[in-house]
Amino acid sequence: MFKTFLGAGAAAGAALGLAVAAQAAEPIKIGTFLAVTGPASFLGDPELKTLRMYVDEINAGGGVLGRPLELIHYDVQHDAQKAITAVKRLISDDKVDVIVGGSTTGTTMAVVPLAEKEGMPFISLAGASVIIDPVKPWVFKTPHTDTMACAKIFEDMRKRNITRIGMISGTGGFGKSMRGQCQKLAPAYGVEVLADETYGQKDSDMTAQLTKIKNTEGVQAVLNPGFGQGPAIVTKNYGQLGMTGLPMYQSHGVASKSYIDLAGSAAEGVRLPAAALVVADKLPDDDPQKPVVAAYKTKYETETGEPVSTFGGHAYDGLMMALAAIHRAGGPEDKARVRDEIEKTTGFMGTAGVVNMSATDHMGLDLSAFRMLEIRDGDWSLID
After folding, report:
1. What tens digit of pLDDT does each residue of 192-233 get?
2. Do domains 2-144+288-369 and 146-274 have the same CATH topology?
3. Using DSSP, how many helices (H) and how many strands (E) does the chain show?
4. What is the chain's percent helix, strand, coil content, to nearest 5?
C-alpha cells in the first residue's frame, strides 16, 4: 500500500545511489505522543495500534529508502504538560525525524511552539481549526476541522428546515473551539442559537443543562460539540429527559462504535459528520475512496479484533504522508525539505478523503471529504 502511494517517487529514491546504501542501517525515527490511556484513550489507542501495524508492515517490506522505521512513543494521556515533556524528549534525546501524533487539541497546541522553534515537521491527529489556522510553517493535521463539522451539520439542518437550535458543548480544547466555530458560522446558514450550555470534562450528569434547552421556546434541534465520554452522557440524559423528538447532532469527535455502545438506545437517530472510514462497507463500489478505507478497515479489524474508528485512520494518513515526504526528500536529514514535501502533498487518497495541501492550507481537505451519518439500529447509516 505504501509502495503504491509512492508511485513515481521511487525513481527519485533510486537516484540517491550509494549515498542511500551507505545510510541503509540508520533507522528513520518516527516520534509520536498519544492519549493511549486516560479519558481520551478511545483516540490514542487505535492511533498507536495503527502506527505500529504499518511500521511493522513497511519494515517487513524493506523499509523506506532501504532504511528501517523506528517508532518512538510516549503516552501523555490528555495532559498538556506531559505532552510538552514528551516532545522535548522526542526532539532532544530521541532525535526523531518527524512527529506524527497529538490525539487531542489541547496536547497538540501545547507543543506547537516547540515544533516551530526546533524546526520539527509535525503532523497532528487532533481536530480543531486553530491547529492550522492561522498556518504555522512546521505544523500540519490530518482530521477534518471543527469548522468543517459545523458547516456539514448546518447544511444538513438546512435540508431539514431547522433554523433554531440549542447547543451544549464540552469545555475542553476541542469542545470550546467547535462551539466558537459553530457560533461564528451559524448566521451564514440562517441558524440561530437560542440556548448555549456547557459541561466540564469530569461532569457525569448534564440533565440540568439539557432541561434548560428543553424548556427554551422554539428550539428545533440539539447540537453537542465535544468528544470523549461527555457526548455519550449528554445523549443518555437527552433520552432520559424524553427529548428524542428534537433531532440531535454530534461532532466527528464521537465517530467510533464506543460512542454508540456508551450512549445506548438514546443514540438512535443521532446524526454527525464523519470520514467515510466508519461506513467503508456501505460505500458504493464506484466510490474512489472505498479501496483505501476498506483495506484499512479489514487490516485493522483483523489484526486487533476491534471495530475500526476514524481516529486510527488519522494516524494512517499522517504516517503515510510523512513517509512519502521523506521519500521524496531523499531521506529525513534535511527537515526543512521534508517540511516542504509535506506541504506539497497533493492527490493523496487517505481515510479522511483526498488531501491537497499548499502553503496556505496545512490540512488539504474540503467539505466533500465529510459524510453525514445517522445511527440506525445501533450502527452507522450513510445519509449522504
Report:
1. 999 999 999 889 999 999 999 999 999 999 999 998 889 999
2. yes
3. 14, 14
4. 50, 20, 35
Q: What is the spatial distance between Cα 113 and Cα 3, in angstroms, rounded to a whole number?
A: 33
Residue matched to cell numbers 439500529: 377
The domains of the chain are located at: 2-144+288-369, 146-274
Instruction: Report whether the peptide linkage leading into residue 134 is cis, meaning its omega lies within 30 degrees of zero.
Output: yes
Could you give phi then psi for residue 139, rounded to 5 degrees? -115, 130
- As given in the structure block, the three cell numbers for residue 60 are 517487513
Question: Looking at this protein, which amino acid is placed at residue 201?
Answer: Q
Cell numbers describing residue 271 = 446524526
Nearest to 145 by CA among 278, 34, 42, 253: 253
Q: How far apart are CA 235 and CA 243, in angstroms?
A: 10
In words, the CATH class of domain 146-274 is alpha beta
The amino acid at residue 293 is V
Count CB-CB contacts under 10 A for residue 213: 24
CATH superfamily for 2-144+288-369 is: Response regulator (3.40.50.2300)
CA angle 372, 375, 376 (to 5 degrees): 125
Q: What is the CA radius of gyration of the chain?
A: 21
Kindly report the number of other CB atoms within 10 A of residue 194's CB atom. Answer: 16
Q: Pairing mode, if any, of strands 69-75 and 28-34? A: parallel
Question: How far, in Å, CA of 116 to CA of 140, rounded?
Answer: 11
Contacts 24+ apart (CB under 8 A), 128-134: 128/173, 128/174, 128/177, 128/178, 129/177, 129/181, 130/105, 130/177, 131/105, 132/361, 132/362, 132/363
Query: Phi/psi at 27 (nearest 5 deg)?
Result: -75, 150
What lies within 8 Å, CB to CB, of 114 at 6+ separation is: 84, 87, 88, 91, 120
> What confidence tens digit (pLDDT) does each residue in 130-168 have?
999 999 999 999 999 999 999 999 999 999 999 999 999
Cell of 232: 455519550
Distance CA 227, CA 176 (A): 11
